[in-house]
Design a protein that fits this description.
Elements (H helix, E strand, L loop, with lengths): L5 H15 L9 H8 L3 H8 L4 E5 L2 E4 L5 E4 L2 E4 L4 E3 L2 H7 L5 H8 L29 H9 L4 H10 L2 E3 L6 E6 L5 E7 L6 E3 L10 E2 L8 E5 L2 H13 L8 E4 L6 H9 L5 E4 L5 H16 L3 H4 L2 E4 L10 H22 L1
Parallel strand pairs: 11-12, 11-13, 13-14
Antiparallel strand pairs: 1-2, 2-3, 3-4, 4-5, 6-7, 7-8, 8-9, 10-12
Helix pairs in contact: 2-5, 4-5, 8-12
Length: 340
């Protein structure tokens, strides 16, 4: 004969009574059970635990304690555990571990469910640059395949703003503050589209290419390090001095890195906004200009702001523009060689 512990037996008995529709369950009535079953999980959490809800889609929520527990269209499913249900009663029993009677009483207002134990937040890790590779062959091959001029690559390696990581051979783009301390780094895959910022990076100090003259009044703003390098390469290929301007990457379209750079470089009075030629880039350039106009100090100092996206016929960003330009030059050289 199978032995069942007393506490477990009471839970099994209560569940069996509930399934069979038996009216009598010690501690709760049929009416209370029906009332408890009226609560769907979304309504319950919105009413009693709104801090536990987090929107994760147009018609979907998850809980902050269990981000794999999804709620949508009147149902909930805890994907990592493979369990789910429709009602808040199911949730309190299956997820919160309450017994049947206690869950019914909680939903009927007799007592609140016990608070969930949340793991203590982990302290952020200190910022640390990835270990460098001794032989950056993958990085060099990748950047040259994107059309970046070797002189720019050498300059970035020399000033410590670019290297190849030992693990996975990623490009590492480093951002430094005015004292030369590394404050930011992002990784770009040399074999695929892998992109990530190093943990605890300070996004105010993104990758930049300084002008030869620290008092240079010009700044070109790009979305990514590759685009910033592409801008400088295009200037060099045109026969001009690429170091006659500062270049900075935003790591997107947010203005914080640009604003920090402008405040750190008080001689900059002209800003060329070179974001992508797409909707996000166009909106981003408007936001960047607005951020300058609304800054009490910069609005007086920065006298010229250009919106300078790449030509639409050559792609959406400056690297696509650069690659198209390099390809066209090669074709012209090949045609001339064939004529000779």
């Amino acid at each position: 004969m199978t032995m069942v512990a007393a506490g477990a037996f009471s839970d099994v008995l209560a569940a069996a009574f509930f399934v069979l529709g038996v009216i009598f369950i010690p501690g709760v009535s049929k009416e209370q059970i029906a009332q408890a079953k009226e609560w769907d999980l979304l309504s319950y959490l919105q009413t009693h635990e709104p801090q536990e809800l987090k929107r994760c889609g147009p018609h979907e929520y998850c809980t902050r304690t269990h981000d794999s527990l999804k709620i949508s269209h009147g149902k909930w499913c805890w994907n990592s555990r493979g369990i789910g249900g429709r009602t808040a009663l199911d949730y309190l029993i299956k997820v919160r571990g309450m017994d049947f009677v206690g869950a019914v009483e909680a939903l009927c207002g007799y007592r609140a469910p016990p608070p969930q134990e949340r793991p203590a937040p982990k302290p952020p890790k200190p910022f640390k640059l990835p270990e460098a590779s001794r032989f950056p062959s993958m990085m060099l091959a990748y950047l040259q395949s994107r059309g970046i001029h070797p002189d720019l690559i050498s300059a970035c390696i020399k000033n410590g703003s670019l290297y190849e990581s030992r693990r996975y051979q990623n490009c590492v783009f480093v951002g430094r503050d005015t004292e030369g301390r590394a404050r930011f780094a992002c990784l770009r895959g040399t074999r695929d589209n892998f992109r990530i910022d190093v943990e605890s990076s300070d996004k105010r100090y993104n990758f930049s290419l300084p002008a030869a003259d620290p008092k240079c009044p010009r700044l070109a703003v790009a979305e990514s390090p590759i685009d910033a390098l592409s801008l400088a390469t295009l200037v060099k290929l045109s026969g001009d001095d690429w170091q006659s301007s500062h270049y900075i990457s935003l790591g997107g379209t947010a203005p914080r890195a640009m604003l920090q750079f402008l405040h750190d470089h008080s001689h900059v009075t002209q800003v060329s906004l070179c974001l992508d030629n797409d909707k996000a880039g166009m909106v981003g350039m408007d936001r960047l200009e607005q951020a300058i106009r609304e800054d009490p100090e910069l609005s007086k100092r920065v006298t010229l702001i250009y919106h300078n996206p790449p030509p639409a016929e050559h792609g959406k960003d400056y690297n696509e523009f650069l690659c198209a330009h390099v390809q066209a030059v090669r074709q012209q050289q090949q045609q001339r060689a064939e004529v000779r």
